[in-house]
Amino acid sequence: MTSTDATETLRPAFPDRDEPKISFGLPFPEACAKHVESTFKASRVYIIASNSLSKTTGALVSLQAALGDNVVGTRIGMKSHTLWSEVVEIVQEARNVNADLLVTLGAGSLSDGAKIVALALANDVPTFEDLGTLASSSSKRSSINPPTIPIISIPTSLSGGEYTNHAGGTHDKTHQKHMFGDPIKGPRLVILDAALSTTTPPSVWLSTGIRAVDHCVECICSLKSTPETDETAAKGLKKLIPGLLRCKYDGQDVDARHECQLGVVDASRAMGLVPMGGSHGIGHQLGPLDVGHGETSCIMLPSVCKFNAKVNSDRQKKVIDILCGDRVVEKVLQKWNVDRQAELGTVLNAIIGELGMPRTLKDVGIGKDKLDGLAESSLKDPWCKSNPIPLEEKRQVMEILEMASGYG
User: What tens digit of pLDDT does each residue of 271-308 get?
Assistant: First the structure.
């Protein structure tokens, strides 16, 4: 059910469950203060805020002013890909101030961090080693309490982690990214503010947008997709690709930014219905090598599509038809001398190139010497196993990495 109060629209993000809800139409400080008081009735709010957003804009100050005395703690900054050590630090701080609500202000790593923090708070996790017993691994506890502290997310990127009931956290010592799943819970409320997103660096906004595109593409290309999931992913693509291109051409186009934000909702629903594939699986392991969350998709998705084409070319054709149905995309493909008979990987490569994003491992400083270790760690990711061609051998991952390497 959708409600409109003054200029706020409040509705469930997904049609099959009540939460998370999304709110848009009000400035984010006003919306957050409203729901802290009326929805969550919280009085001890702990904020996890982006370092760059806090230092270069007045966003955090505005949020703190709106929440007033309800703020009992603030963490400024988390490194990309959610380090376990930082999660443990925040757990200790939030426990010490007896926080009853977490608010994230910033990009995807903060959302994942808050989800793991909430899970850890419910399970008396005081140390780095204890945190490992909550992750999906052989050492996972047999009994884990579900989180009780709610989360409000105010995202400034398009990676979509705020809509999922899982999170990725990176072990500081091994640099392995581990998944935290059931009974973890995502935010109960996501506040969308397109004007706030204009403060996001263009490279972050556009690359994380391709991350959301990756959700849609791997959904449609999955051999486990259904007409329902195809429809949901197609809706996301139709919002995201034209919206991202418009944002590239005019960074202040708030209507395009809002359309992208709504596209992420569709993309996240699609990702929740169908197992993802190799682009996500390999991308998880690229992150700890200091590749941006969205950049992993920019680099890996075209090559993974080319690798999979021998078994899902009919499904890839569906994606091409969706993309080529848009005039903005058609102009881009003409500019890059790509026609609609080309492989999906080639079409995506042109769009990513038009956005000015990195397209090879070489572009982000990943040398040939890193490929062997990257292939080995990728095989441990469950989404490599759910790839249309299950990635079960190192040589398969190496084939994809070599296509994406940029070293010829």
Answer: 989 999 999 999 999 988 889 889 999 999 999 999 99
The per-residue pLDDT of the chain, averaged, comes to 95
* CA atoms within 13 A of residue 356's CA, in its CB half-sphere: 11
Name the packing angle between helices 394-405 and 293-324 (round to 10°).
Answer: 80
pTM score = 0.93
**What is the structure's pLDDT at 340?**
86
Torsion angle in degrees (nearest 10) through CA of 113, 118, 124, 127: 10
Phi then psi for residue 314, to 5 deg, are -65, -40
Q: List C-alpha distances in Å: 284 to 125, 189, 287, 382.
A: 24, 26, 6, 10
For the cut 90, the answer to whether the pLDDT of residue 107 exceeds it is no
Quick check: 163 and 264 in contact, CB under 8 A?
yes
Segment (H or E) for 260 = helix 254-273
- The Cα–Cα gap between 154 and 31 comes to 10
Q: What is the pLDDT of residues 327-363, one digit of tens each?
A: 999 999 999 999 989 999 999 999 999 999 999 999 9
Helices (H), 102-193: 108-121, 128-131
